[in-house]
């Protein structure tokens, strides 16, 4: 037979495990909820479509201007 002291320890361990599990579950649930609440905001574009197109055009022009001489040099050598 299990002594009363051992039964009390087992009961305390079981209740402590259940309480800890419930606390962890609630914390995870609140974390997942806060993440899912922020998801729609993260999907919104920072810039409008026109601004992104203008930025892409300016970026491409600057890359062409910067790397153009290197590309011409490599092309003339047959690369």
UniProtKB/TrEMBL annotation:
Record protein name field: Uncharacterized protein
Biological source species: Penstemon smallii
